[in-house]
Amino acid sequence: MKSMLRNGLVIVLALAFVFAGTTMAMAEEEDRIVIGSGAEAPGLDTRAEVDIPAFERINLINEPLIVIENDLSLGPALAEDWEYSEDATELTFYLREGVEFHHGREFVADDVKYTIEWILDEDNDAANRDLYAAIEEVEIVNDYEVTLHLSEVNTFLINNIARFGIVPRDIGEELGDDYGNEPVGTGPYVFESWDRDDRMILEAHENYWGGTPNFDVVEFRAIPEDSARLLAFEAGEIDMYQGGVVPDELARLEDDPDVDVFRTAGTGYSYVGFDNEEGPMTDENLRKAVSYMVNREAIVEHILQGIGEVGQSQIVPTMPWFHSDLDFISYDPEKAHEYYQQSIAAEEDVELRIFTNENPVRMQIAEIMEYELSELGLDVEVVIEEWGAFLDRIYDTNDYEMFILGWGGQMDPDRASYRQFHSEGSANHVNYSNPEMDELLEEGRRTDPESDESIEIYHRVQEILNEDAPKVFLNYTEEVALVQPEFEGFEVHPYAANAWLSVPFLERAE
Known about the structure:
This protein is an alpha+beta fold. It has 16 helices and 19 strands. It has helices at 2-19, 21-29, 52-58, 109-120, 157-161, 169-175, 226-234, 247-254, 284-293, 296-303, 333-342, 360-376, 387-397, 413-421, 435-445, 452-468; strands at residues 32-37, 66-68, 74-76, 79-84, 90-95, 135-142, 145-150, 189-195, 199-204, 217-222, 240-242, 260-274, 309-310, 352-356, 380-384, 402-407, 471-483, 487-488, 507-508. Strands 11, 12, 13, 14, 15, 16 and 17 form a 7-stranded mixed β-sheet that branches. A 4-stranded mixed β-sheet has the order 1-10-9-8, sandwiched between helices. The chain has a 4-stranded antiparallel β-sheet with strand order 4-5-7-6, covered by helices on one side. The longest helix has 18 residues, at 2-19. The protein is globular and about 70 Å long.
């Protein structure tokens, strides 16, 4: 029956693409590569967007000064080099000469100044503005050298510079708020058209400084449902995709000679967030009772089919700041019952809801938690919401007791910690507050990241989180990509936003 259903869906998808006849005709004339995406991009303004689907596309259009390489080191992009002053309060970038924007003008230092000042301007919609708050002034030294003057030492600022592309001043000022609908950059591909919720077309930048891309056209197709995206891939209608590979299908795909499967440890984690400010989950004993009752090992083994690792803290184990000696909270029903008996739930009825979106893995985790917590005596209601409504609830209304969500892009311990666990953190969606934590996170930014002191700071940060239990860290992510075997040279990137940086220079097998 499963096979019949799959075949039927393949036929439906194939017919749908056949009716898109004009596209097929164009494919015969152009060398086109088609990428499946798990979601539509909300916009394409590199200064304003924050999510992975947006930057999957943006990163082929707008280039940053420096780029996050596959090994998570920083590499040159529009800046050939950079250096800090001796006291680390100035950061100077030496820009690449002879780089041309898509509209034909040369990229210069003024474009860097314009982009950064736009982000810092509180009248603009820059969601990551807080990451750059240490920048006090942007000084143009000459057309190919620009210096950032900092109000305070922030040793991790350099990593965040790699998060946004450079926008040409003339186009940014001309388009205003419409820039995100028709962006212009220096990247290997030029924005051509966008049929929202269907496909986006990018064309090769023939004057790209890094060499003309191997493919004339890159087409992104938004296919939100994981199973449908896999069927489209197996029908040959998309050439590759990363993320959202159906766990139950992974073993079969790895044995299939007609599929190239790429895997690498990711830079994020999934978690259960508690409301640490209002309601029953403000009770630390209840948070710990729930935390010890979640069987993370079983989730990774049975639901994720071994994709990723058991979650322990906000810092991924591959980082030197990971506290490998800490006895992290793990599945222990006996301890869970002990904490439960000390919690408010042992004395009064509490109403608990766990929210998540329509992601099938998260829905399964929520259902398992509902059962596991019932073993404690807790009555939990699972509520599934559409993605937008779910995010509004978490980000805006705070109307929840628990929710399941993910966090990606942990390139350093500051990015993994400050915004999520500082009392004033812009991504502190669990409403967590601890004065010692605030002091540590502020000190971490002023400390040499290669020093023993930095290691000690973030070890203590993890100890506090283990003591306070504001979240349950479910699993560390693993990036999985599927690529048609006709392509050579692909490398899976641990940071999903950079998944397609190598695409312009892939080659078709002979």
